[in-house]
Amino acid sequence: MPLVNNKVGDDCTVGTDKALADGEALLQSLIKVVACYRHLASCVGGCTDSLQLRDELRQTREKAQKLAASICHHLTSHLRDKSLPEEQRKEMELLWVAFSSSLELLHVDMCKVFSMGDIFSLANTATLVQTGLQGGGSEVAARALSLPDLNQALTPTPAAGLESQERSTMEQEISQIDHMIDDMEMKVNVLRWMVEPYGPQYADPLSSADSASLALLSVDEEQPAQQPLCQRKQIFAFLLLFTVVLLASTLSVCIVLFS
Amino acid sequence: MTIRNTLRDHGQRYRPRIACLKKAEKVLLEMQDPKTGVKSQPQRLVITTIPHAITGEDILSWLADRFQIDTQEARNFGSMLVALGYIYPLQDHKRLVIKPDASLYRFQTPYFWPTQQWPVEDTDYAIYLAKRNIRKKGILELHEQEQYNRLHKWMNHKWDFIVMQAKEQYRAAKERKKPDRVVFDCQERAYWVVHRPPPGTVSAMDYGLDRRIDPNADEEKTPDFYGRIMIFTQQSIMRPRVKSSVSIGALVKYCATYNGHDPFLSKCLPSNPWITDDITYWNLNMPNVEIPTKMRVERWTFSFGELLSDPRGRDDFRLFLKKEFSGENLAFWEGCEDLKWGTAATMREKAEQIYKSFLARGAPRWINIDGKTMEITVNGLKHPHRYVLDAAQTHIYMLMKKDSFGRYLKSPVFKDTLKKAVCPEEHKYSDAQLEQNAKNRRPSLSPIVLRQQEKEHRAKMAANAPVDITQLCRYTTPVPHLAVYSGISDFPSANASPSLPFLAHSPACPSPISVALDSTSASERRAEAGEGGAAGIPEARAPAAGSVSRSCMPLSLRRLLKRGCTPSTMFASLSPKYHSAAGTSSRIQPISPDQPSQAPPRRIGNFFQIKVDIPPECRIYPIESEDEDEEENRAASRGGVGAKEIICPWESLTPQNGTG
């Protein structure tokens, strides 16, 4: 996360500080939305693909586009401002690089969803690949749209009409993003090799508890075949031991009683 | 299903060798059909169950059933599907093979399917590795660690973004239900095992260079398209045909001969480096190795072409020819090859050099080709190009093949080589040793270093190898920078020369003889130019002198010309401007009868060095004409480069060549 180092309440920098903070917040939310979009996109074509998923994708996409447009406008206007002080410019450029990378990711994901939606049409559910997923992407979409709870009423419109309309909208949006990327390159010249990031090379683990359970899951799935077997073996051995101990104690009690 | 990349594509993104992807996708869609596909079962983990797991044996039986193939074939096919990434194993996820037992697999989600047009982005890989590191620090394997560091270096500007995105993806994943999270993790991991394989494994995603045109796309039916089809069919009709018995017979003979030497079809001694990672085989078969292997020597006996194409074989053959004193044939052939494959800038000089060394009458290493070929070659040399010596080269090649090759195979040289040839033992490596070998793989020498070594070797060969000069002649021009052929130098003897009338005008020229002889040659040329016949050229060449410094000669003579001296006529033929000075030829004539008597005595006992270390700037000119004439002379003399004693016929006949 690019840190804002200058907390000095300089008069001329206050405005740009605020601009930086705004830009960062917007960028953060864009990155979040792009990440969620990727998760949703990975479900397309699988057995959990449904109109709902497509709808969620659409909403996420629209949110992403709105955010992208506002960040673009924001950053472009600031970077074209020649009077920007050097440090501010550096930080703006960092934001710029992050923004363009996330736009590229979004573009790729949108193209993939577009063509996959083409092939895996929802009309024929038998061709949806059985990937092992069970739940949909509702929670992810809720996170993307920053809604506490997603109440989606499935709109039972005829599939054909909606899909073709969807496709044309999507095509437009893809080309919009394309243009945005082009415009960005044209308007502002950011030398990528001059940009230095602030953050560490390795990200810190976020929460240990969850990681432990996930690790457990992954370990489990490494030997699921042996796991039941081990358990069975263990139980059997335990039972045997228990029986032996019981027998031994009974015998000893008998001996004690009858001796 | 090919995912089109609508982002600005700079072309060359198509990967033609993975055209099987479309077909694999069709098969997969059939396989995963809940009714007619492979039957799936739920996978039981400690905490939860995940559906849609399939066993290896079910997959194989389905494939064998569907395509009517046997189990082994089904195994190969199944392994291919896994290697491409359409199915991933749940246990032992790093080995991408199908095991014919109850081990579990699952279908990959279409988002992670390998695509024809979408390159796998390093940014995504960096995000994936960062995510794994977030989940548990230190979980990255060694090669992943290295990749991570490398990506950190190369994508440094994006690194904040990558870390942020990794965190966000991780958080978004946490929103999902646990089983889905596990499935997604497995999917992503499998995707990266396919596309960034660990070292020592073979990736099915290896393709060659990217191509500009999508081979899977349907081609538009433009007029060009039909034009191409028409040309193709016309050429097919006009192609010459051979009787199938003949062609098949040739194929069978070829296969029978080379069967034992093919590393795929038979054992490769000691071991195939691609399989066992042991490079002994390559070391034993290096181009300049002292002792070749028996297989290699056997290969030389198959045909003359084989012998020549192997550098070690060629060396052996060269040695044999040296003993037989017929090394000029091979040298000529090599010179022609050099001309054919060399750079265009040096072509002209090389052609001249070869002509002077091998083809000209009285050349030091004269080769014996018939008159017709000689005529064709000489005519062609007027406008030299890469293939001008092709006819002569073919003639010499056939000569060597029919004559020398047979004798070589019976010669003591060959028998000696055969006796000394080594036959290595076969390696027998255990699995552990193979892994050890794989770890110890080292890159070979850089091609730059190899090229340098080759150049040094060639220079050494050129410097050391004494050439068997069949004709004693001093009439060769040294070409300092084309050190291909070499001879024994005899520089000082050139200075012992009779004084000639116009020698006083050019005292600084190191070999006055050449002046005289050049004048003679010029006179001969004048005579022959007067006759207008190309037949006079061989005569002109015979008494021609050997000038040691070629740039010296024309300059000094030009100066003499300016002063109206006799050698003007020499340059008459070299530059068009001086054709008018033909009138002075009268003075030359008296000298010409002398020349033939002068020339022979000097022939004896003089080996001329073909390669000489005279710096081209050996200019000791008469002072007067040094300044303004230099550039002009140089420009004019360039046309007559090196053509002082053995006059290249194209230069004397075609005036435009005189100005270079």
Automatic annotation (TrEMBL), chain A:
<keyword id="KW-0812">Transmembrane</keyword>
<feature type="transmembrane region" description="Helical">
    <location>
        <begin position="235"/>
        <end position="258"/>
    </location>
</feature>
<dbReference type="GO" id="GO:0009968">
    <property type="term" value="P:negative regulation of signal transduction"/>
</dbReference>
<dbReference type="InterPro" id="IPR026512">
    <property type="entry name" value="RGS7BP/RGS9BP"/>
</dbReference>
<keyword id="KW-1133">Transmembrane helix</keyword>
<keyword id="KW-0734">Signal transduction inhibitor</keyword>
<keyword id="KW-0472">Membrane</keyword>
<protein>
    <submittedName>
        <fullName>Putative regulator of G-protein signaling 9-binding protein B-like</fullName>
    </submittedName>
</protein>
<comment type="similarity">
    <text>Belongs to the RGS7BP/RGS9BP family.</text>
</comment>
UniProtKB/TrEMBL annotation, chain B:
<dbReference type="InterPro" id="IPR000591">
    <property type="entry name" value="DEP_dom"/>
</dbReference>
<dbReference type="Pfam" id="PF00610">
    <property type="entry name" value="DEP"/>
</dbReference>
<dbReference type="Pfam" id="PF18148">
    <property type="entry name" value="RGS_DHEX"/>
</dbReference>
<feature type="domain" description="RGS">
    <location>
        <begin position="303"/>
        <end position="418"/>
    </location>
</feature>
<dbReference type="InterPro" id="IPR040759">
    <property type="entry name" value="RGS_DHEX"/>
</dbReference>
<dbReference type="Pfam" id="PF00615">
    <property type="entry name" value="RGS"/>
</dbReference>
<dbReference type="GO" id="GO:0007601">
    <property type="term" value="P:visual perception"/>
</dbReference>
<dbReference type="InterPro" id="IPR047017">
    <property type="entry name" value="RGS6/7/9/11_DHEX_sf"/>
</dbReference>
<dbReference type="InterPro" id="IPR016137">
    <property type="entry name" value="RGS"/>
</dbReference>
<keyword id="KW-0844">Vision</keyword>
<dbReference type="InterPro" id="IPR036390">
    <property type="entry name" value="WH_DNA-bd_sf"/>
</dbReference>
<dbReference type="InterPro" id="IPR047016">
    <property type="entry name" value="RGS6/7/9/11"/>
</dbReference>
<dbReference type="InterPro" id="IPR047077">
    <property type="entry name" value="RGS9_RGS"/>
</dbReference>
<feature type="region of interest" description="Disordered">
    <location>
        <begin position="582"/>
        <end position="602"/>
    </location>
</feature>
<dbReference type="InterPro" id="IPR036305">
    <property type="entry name" value="RGS_sf"/>
</dbReference>
<keyword id="KW-0472">Membrane</keyword>
<dbReference type="GO" id="GO:0007186">
    <property type="term" value="P:G protein-coupled receptor signaling pathway"/>
</dbReference>
<feature type="domain" description="DEP">
    <location>
        <begin position="34"/>
        <end position="109"/>
    </location>
</feature>
<feature type="compositionally biased region" description="Polar residues">
    <location>
        <begin position="582"/>
        <end position="597"/>
    </location>
</feature>
<dbReference type="InterPro" id="IPR036388">
    <property type="entry name" value="WH-like_DNA-bd_sf"/>
</dbReference>
<dbReference type="GO" id="GO:0043005">
    <property type="term" value="C:neuron projection"/>
</dbReference>
<dbReference type="GO" id="GO:0005737">
    <property type="term" value="C:cytoplasm"/>
</dbReference>
